[in-house]
Amino acid sequence: MLQSAAFILAVLLARFAPFSLTPLSFSLLVGVFAAAFSHLAGQARWWVPIQFIFAPAQVTMLTLEVPPTLYLVIFLVLLVVYWSTFRTQVPLYLSSNKVWQALETLLPAPATGGGAGFRFMDIGSGIGGVLAHLARVRPDGEYHGVEIAPLPFLWSWLRLRLKPNCRVRWGSLWDCDLSHHDVVFAYLSPVPMAELWEKARREMKPGSLFISNTFAVPEFPPQKTVQVDDLHHSLLYIWRM
Ligand SMILES: C[S@@+](CC[C@H](N)C(=O)[O-])C[C@H]1O[C@@H](n2cnc3c(N)ncnc32)[C@H](O)[C@@H]1O
Question: Are 105 and 135 in contact (CB under 8 A)?
C-alpha cells in the first residue's frame, strides 16, 4: 500500500514536472516517497531502506531482461522456505554447533538402571539440526520437533526418518501440547516470546526446562543463562518451570 501510494504521488508529480523523467529517476522518486511514507507509518527502521530500494531495483532488474520464470522459481523457493514468516515474524536461521553442544550439557542426566529417558522438544525445528545432533550424542532421549515451513520440514523429515528416537511433524507450535516434554527448546524471535512464555507456564510440567536461544521473555528473567562462544555470542535463557 505504501509503495502504491508512493507510485501514485510520483505519477502526479511527474505529470506536472517541466521535464520528463527517465524510468530510473522516476523509480528513485517513488523510492524517496515510499521511504518517507514508511517512516511516517511508523514501520521498523530497517523497512525504510527496503522501501527506498524496491522500485529502483525493479527498474534495474528489468533492464537485465532476466526471464520472468526465474523470478517465479525464486519466489516459489522462498515461499516454501519462509512460508508464513510474514505472520509468525520468525524466519529460518540455524542454531550454531556450539549451541547444540551447550544444549547437551543441559539435558537431564541419563537414567540409572536403564529407566525411561527424557523427552526433548524443538518448537520451530527448522531443518532438524538440533534434533539430529542431540539424538546422536544422547540416544537415551526422545526427540520431537514441529516446523511450520514446508521445505525445512521436509528436509528435517528426510534426515531424521531413520532415527527411531526422533519425530518431526509439519504444523504450528501453537497447536503443540508441551506437557509431555522434559526440555522445550525455542529459537524464534522477540515477537512470540511473551505469548510463548504464557503457553509454557500453562502447559509445561513442574521441574521441566524451558530454554530460549537468544530471545528473552519480557519481564520474566531466566533463572540461568549460558553464554555460548559462537559467532553471534548466542545466549541461552533457561527457566526451570
Ligand atoms: C530461527 S529458526 C530455528 C531452527 C532450529 N530450531 C534451530 O535452532 O536451528 C525458527 C524456525 O521456526 C519456524 N517457525 C516459526 N513459527 C512457527 C510456528 N508457529 N510453528 C512452527 N514452526 C515455526 C520457522 O519456520 C523456522 O524454521
Answer: no
